[in-house]
Structure formats: structure tokens, C-alpha cells
């Protein structure tokens, strides 16, 4: 699977893609990451990628020409997913990560400044994604997040693929189950705080029941919105 990232800060990705799951997937050849400097797809000497917004207002807007040129030069087929990272996009979640993982190529366009010319979202992108209800200075952090989440579904990237089924939000058809149950490890007692006795009882049925109840309790406490 190929991830292409279009950005004006290509050096940002030297760190995120050299760690953990993404690094392992790249080393095994199961995924490939390619970073593209948007300025290299401009036609003027100053490598201009932005301009003032029509209608007035603060800030600058990324121009459509270099973005279209970049995507059209790296796109490998009509089935390629072209993702715009935007605060006004639909919320990124686990089902969306699973959906994107079915593509052989995902192109991620990182916004900056006041955003991207809307014609990119209307006529070039296949989806517009937001990673949350907050504002970042650019789409680079969001792109790194999306690559990590999607890469986990590429066969062979995660060592024990059955563990994916136990992650929070892992079942796109049953998100009402909420977040994953709490985890504990050794020591059995730390600073006077013991591990729940059921987890060291050896009673697998009781452990399963406790985990379901603990997951519901944690969901109610931290993410009650999921219970709707």
C-alpha cells in the first residue's frame, strides 16, 4: 500500500514515519510512504503556493493549481483515495480507517494557513477528513495520524492481527460497545493499588464478564456520546 503526502513542510515527516508501526511496515515492504513538497509543483520563480482569499478576510489560502498538478502527477489509478485534511471535513474514525485501508494508494493533502481552495475538495478529493473538533496549524499531524491508523489494517504490518479485533472502536458495525476495557500488568499491587482480583483468579468466564462491564463503565465515564 502506498501513502503519498503532499505538504509544504516535507521535513515534518522525518520523525513520525521512522517510528513504530509505520517504520515496521515500510521496512517489510508492506507499505510505502512518499513525501511530496508542494512548492515543487509551482510554475513561478518564488514557488508560490498560496494567495489572498476572494471576498476579503484574514490569512492566506492554498492555491488549487499546484495541488491539482501534484495529485495528477502521482495518482496511479482511478481507485486512489485522495484525502484533504481539513477542520471542516467529516470526523475520522475507525470505520474510515478500515475503508481507506482497502485502497492500494492513499494521497493525503495537508492544509495550511486559512485552508485550501474549495475546488480541491469539490473536484479532486474523494474525501475531506477532520481528526477532531479543534484547530491545528496545518494538516501534517493529521496526515501522520491517518497513515498510522490505516497502516495497522494492512496485512502483515501488525504482528498479531487478531489484536486489532480487540482494540477500541475496532468493530465498525458495533461502535456502541464503546472503548476497550482497562488493562493491568505486573506488579499485582502497586503503591497499595491492587489489580482487580478477578483478573488473577484464572476464571476466564468471570474475566470476560468483568471486562465487558469495565468497558461499559469506562465508556460511560469518558465517552458517553458513544452510548447514543
Topology:
Elements: E1 2-7, H1 20-28, E2 32-37, E3 50-51, E4 61-62, H2 64-74, E5 81-91, H3 94-100, E6 105-110, H4 118-123, E7 127-130, H5 140-151, E8 189-190, E9 193-194, H6 204-222
Parallel strand pairs: 1-2, 1-6, 5-6, 5-7
Antiparallel strand pairs: 3-4, 8-9
Provide keyphrases for this structure:
single chain, 228 residues, alpha/beta, Alpha/beta knot, Trp Operon Repressor, Chain A, 2 domains, 5-stranded parallel sheet, two-stranded antiparallel ribbon, 6 helices, 28% helix, elongated
Description of the structure:
The chain has 228 residues and is of the alpha/beta class. It folds into 2 domains: 2-151, Alpha/beta knot (3-Layer(aba) Sandwich); 174-227, Orthogonal Bundle (Trp Operon Repressor, Chain A). Helices cover 28% and strands 18% of the residues. It is built from 6 helices and 9 strands; from the N terminus they run βαβββαβαβαβαββα. It has helices at residues 20-28, 64-74, 94-100, 118-123, 140-151, 204-222, and strands at residues 2-7, 32-37, 50-51, 61-62, 81-91, 105-110, 127-130, 189-190, 193-194. The strands form 3 sheets. The chain has a 5-stranded parallel beta sheet, with helices on both faces. α3 (94-100) links the parallel β5 (81-91) and β6 (105-110). The longest helix is centred in the last third of the chain and has 19 residues, at 204-222. It is elongated and about 70 Å long. It starts with a strand and ends in a 6-residue tail after the last helix. 26% of the residues are buried. The model is unreliable at 172-176 (pLDDT under 50).
